[in-house]
Amino acid sequence: MTLMRATGLAKSFGGLRAIDGVDLAFEAGKVHSIIGPNGAGKTTLINMLSGIYAPDTGTITFDGEDITGRPVHRFAAAGIGRTFQNLQVFFNMTALENVMTGRHLREPVSLASALLRTRGLRDAETACRDKAHELLRRVGLAGADHVAADSMPYGALKRLEIARALAAEPRLLLLDEPAAGLNATEAREIDALIRKLADAGTTIVLVEHNMALVMEVSDHVFVLDRGRKLAEGTPAEVSSNPHVIEAYLGSEEPEAAHA
Ligand SMILES: Nc1ncnc2c1ncn2[C@@H]1O[C@H](COP(=O)(O)OP(=O)(O)OP(=O)(O)O)[C@@H](O)[C@H]1O
């Protein structure tokens, strides 16, 4: 089943076509990666898929519903979660508190109950705490509930971000470079976590430069180059595609590519 579909997406900045007529389909419970050389348009695309940018043209449907142009909180409420390339962690909070901040979409609190600290509010807080505790365990941070975020190592903070995004119970999770800055062991742990999330039914869309991770974890890979979709397919298909090889060589060795 196709959970999310983007058709003919385009976005320009001034005269620059950052994304130029891209079609994508994300299947429920699968791991998809979006790769491409620097400046290919990956960030622009993920920003459209999460509702941060409205596309200039094209449509985005989620679970059969057209959500094009809706504000970002409506994308989140529909079931689209994301993490960011740069950590969006509250460093003055504990790990548990950070994850609890991700629950507000699912457990909204009325002003009256917050002011009166009703029984309902206290029950909701307990449920929220229990859920956050469970999510920390799920991402491999069991025992870190009361650890201050500013004392956690970088690899743990990347997982904390994922736990916080999961707190909103997304059906589709966009991960923006979850392995950036991680060593090989930590990247393998992220790989295992992504697989576990997909196996539990969460649809994953990964933007990532770490090719070992992409090739290992993905069911389907989309390759962007200069705002267009250059190729798509299984990891084996795209890695043997001559156009993809050329695009990557071209970005790393411009002299050789244009010789
Ligand atoms: N807000 C913006 N204003 C103007 N130009 C932008 C903006 N955002 C992106 N661009 C341009 O659009 C093109 C695509 O950028 P984008 O950041 O989406 O690529 P990317 O594939 O994510 O690159 P990287 O791998 O380096 O993060 C680039 O030429 C970039 O300079």
Q: What is the mean pLDDT?
A: 91
Give the domain tally.
1
Relative strand content: 15-25%
The strand count comes to 10
Main sheet record: 6 strands, mixed
SSE order, one letter for each helix or strand: EEEHEEHEHHHHEHEHEEHHH
Residue share in helix:
40-55%
Question: How do the strands of the widest beta sheet line up side by side?
Answer: 6-7-8-3-9-10
Query: What is the CATH-assigned architecture?
Result: 3-Layer(aba) Sandwich
What does this structure look like?
By secondary structure, the chain is α/β, with parallel strands linked by helices. Residues about 255-259 have low confidence and may be disordered. Strands 6-7-8-3-9-10 form a six-stranded mixed beta sheet, with helices on both faces. Strand 7, helix 7 (about 185-200) and strand 8 form a beta-alpha-beta unit. The protein has helices at about 40-50, 70-80, 95-100, 110-115, 120-140, 155-165, 185-200, 210-215, 235-240, 240-250, 255-259; strands at about 1-15, 15-25, 30-35, 55-60, 65, 80, 170-175, 205, 220-225, 230-235. It has one domain (about 1-259): P-loop containing nucleotide triphosphate hydrolases (Rossmann fold), CATH 3.40.50.300. The N and C termini lie far apart (about 45 Å). It binds adenosine-5'-triphosphate. It comes from Ramlibacter albus.
Write a concise synopsis of the structure shown.
The protein is of the alpha/beta class and 259 residues long. The chain is built from 11 helices and 10 strands. The protein is 41% helix and 24% strand.
